[in-house]
Amino acid sequence: MKPKLAFFDFTSCEGCQLDILNIEGEELLSLVRAVEIVNFREVKTERAENYDIAFIEGSISRESEIPRLQKIRSQAKIVIALGACACIGESTA
Which of 1, 2, 21, 36 is 20 to 30 A removed from 76 (C-alpha atoms)? Predict the structure, then answer.
């Protein structure tokens, strides 16, 4: 069974998500074949609450974002900070 990936954005420009789409040809196809993408706002409108790996892009800049982040964390087996905004709290937005 393929791992289910979800991408979530907080305060950011979403450029890191777009960089994933810029992965060169066969490498991108290999990724798409290896996983099931269930939540990726830049790619698809359908969303699922069932995922194994959550990518978090952007910084948590408002207290109101904390419950959303906590929900994502409780549902994911693995959470990965994607980009400078998520890793060090820097925001370009």
Answer: 21
pLDDT tens, position by position, 53-89: 999 998 888 899 999 999 999 999 999 999 888 888 7
- b (16+ CB within 10 A) / e for 38-60: bbbeeeeeeeeeebbbbbbbbbb
Helices (H), the chain: 15-21, 25-34, 66-75, 84-88
For the chain, state the CA radius of gyration: 13
93 vs 85, residue with greater confidence: 85
Cα–Cα distance for residue pair 38/6, rounded to 1 Å? 6
